[in-house]
Every structure is written in structure tokens, then in C-alpha cells.
TrEMBL record:
A Pfam family: GlcNAc_2-epim
Enzyme Commission designation: 5.1.3.11
Domain of life: Bacteria
GO biological process: carbohydrate metabolic process
UniProt protein name: Cellobiose 2-epimerase
InterPro entries: 6-hairpin_glycosidase_sf, 6hp_glycosidase-like_sf, AGE/CE
Isomerase as UniProt keyword: yes
UniProt keyword Isomerase present: yes
An example Gene Ontology molecular-function term: cellobiose epimerase activity
Family: Belongs to the N-acylglucosamine 2-epimerase family.
Keywords (A to Z) from UniProt: Isomerase
Amino acid sequence: MNVTDYLQTWAASYKEDFVNNIMPFWMRYGLDHKNGGVYTCLDRDGRLMDTTKSVWFQGRFGFIAAYAYNQIEQNPDWLAASRSCIDFMEKHCFDKDGRMFFEVTEEGLPLRKRRYVFSECFAAIAMSEYALASGDRTYAEKALDLFKRILRNLATPGLLEPKYLPTLQARGHSITMILINTASRIRAAISDPILDTQINESIAAIRRYFMHPEFKALLEMVGLDGELIDTCNGRVINPGHCIETAWFILEEAKHRHWDKDLVQMGIRILEWSWEWGWDKEYGGIINFRDCRNFPVQDYSQDMKFWWPQTEAIIATLYAYQATCDEKYLDMHRQISDWTYAHFPDKEYGEWYGYLHRDGTVAQPAKGNIFKGPFHIPRMMIRSYTLCKEIL
């Protein structure tokens, strides 16, 4: 492989696709110019199917638009879109108790609130990235304050409804891993010891509780001491989440001047998760596996969703940057070739989100409450910058 040509080609492709395809689609069809914020429930051609607004995506697109401004080009329309999402969140998406909603109407009336603090995590990274883009430090301070509130909510018994009744005491991987990225993004805009402390605690928890060498797997849910919960839910491997965790850890290793221990940890998680996730028959990263190889309970277990593929593209580039081992570029080529052969909609733009196992389209909508302008543009921005850094 000619590494220079390969990376130059992909860098140009990521930037071109982001600037001329993904971002124009969401700027044209997603932005709510009347009420502020962004819609995500869009049909294949961009038509609005549902005016319900995902609070996750007010933060997610608020982040992406500012991240693009910082990393791709200083487009004032992108900065304005980020501010629109943040303003909408601040005005409409916080409940009286300080926690955030999950869904609101297009005008911002609350529809639904969930036990998770993911809305708050996405709001925080939007504010911190906007602070970097705009130069307004008050948004970095807001992000840090919100992060501290997240930690208080997680640490205070009774504030968040538990997922299970007291019969089952468990730890979840999702919140553990997302706090690494949330703290990391805020740290780029403002310093505070609590950010590094949380990153260290999350990484230690992943190593101690969720990594299970006996299965060569990172599990989604474990007992309080990291023990296997030998049920359908307890045996779940989510390869996409695990691969995302791998690149969060490799990114932190890079921040620490390529800390060898963290590089080894990130690479191990990537390789374990690739082995579980890569579909050797059809290609692509599969949704769920069972660590004992029992049938998986989730109905979408053998589907190919958009976001695990994008996480694998980023992770393999990080792995190559960390090690200079071309086998990770071979993995990058594998996942990239499969992803770009199946997900982009060549007629209407953007990407499909939901494919059957064989790569055929399961449904053609470009967005809903969970899919929107986040994983795909984040992959393109982050992968573009990684290719340029490596070159």
C-alpha cells in the first residue's frame, strides 16, 4: 500500500463529502429557522416527517457545526447553526430540576424525559466546542458547570431512576465511556481537575469491570464488581460501542504523548471488538453478539446500522497513528470500502441509517430521534484531521 496516496485520497474524500453532501443536507432540510434548533425526522429526500425534536441532537448538531467551524473552515453559517441549537436548548430543553428532556415539540414544549444524562453530555460538548469557535469563554464555563451537574446526578442516590429494580445491581458501559469523550471535549476549551479525574476513573472502570479476557470482549453491562451477569442482557456485546470506546482511549493516549499502557488497552479493545463485530460473510460491523454465542435477544441483532461503521473508520485510523502498523490501514480499507458501497444515497444525498445484514436498505429515512447529523459528520471531520496529521 502507498500510505501517502491512500491517506491523501481519503482526506480529500472526507472533506469533499462533508462540505458538499452531509452538511448541506442538514443545513437545508434540518434547520428550524422559525423556532431555532434542528429537526432530524427527515425522509430520504429531506422532507420533514415529524416535527418532534430530539434533545440529543440539539446538542449533537450544536457540537458538529462548531467542530466543523474549528476543523474544516470558518463558515459563519455553521457557527450560527451551532448557536441556534444551543440557544434552543437553553431556552426550552432544561426542566425545572436542572435536568434535560429527551424530546420536545418544534416550539420547545416538553414531551418526554428519560433516566439518562446523555442529553446533558451532548449539550456540554456543544457549548465547549462553541466556546472554541466563537471565543466566548462563558460557554466553556457553562459546559463545565453542566458536566459537574451530570456527575452530581450520577453520584446522588435517588436522583436518577435506576434501570432495574434493586434485585439486579449492575454497571453500564455506555455512561462510563461517554464521560471520557465528554470530559475530553470540554477540556479542549477549559481546564479543571475534575475532567482529568473523570477520564481516569472511566478508563479504570472499563479496564477493571467491563473488559473480560475470558471472552476477549468488552461487555455492555456487568455486576457491581465486574462479574458476568449470565442472562441475555448481561451477555451482550455491542461491537460499535466497544470500538467507539477504543478510539476514545486511543485519543486520550495521544493526549498523553502516546501513553503505552493506554495504546495497548485501546488496541486490545479494538481487536477484540472487530473480531466479534466484523461480519465475515457479508461484511460490515454487526449490531449485537452474545459472549457465549447464544442467540441475541434484540430484534436488530444482525442488522448493520450507520454508526458502528463510522466508529470503526475512526478507530482504525487512530490505531494506525498510534502504532504505524499497516494492518490497521487494511482494516480501515475493509470497513471503508464496505461502508461507502452500501450507506451513501447517491440520488438524494446523505446516508441511509438502517441496513439488513446483507447490506440492503431496511428503511430509507435519513433521520429520526436517534439518527441525525452526528456520527457521520463526526467521522468525516475526525478522519480528515487524522489523515492530515498522519501525513
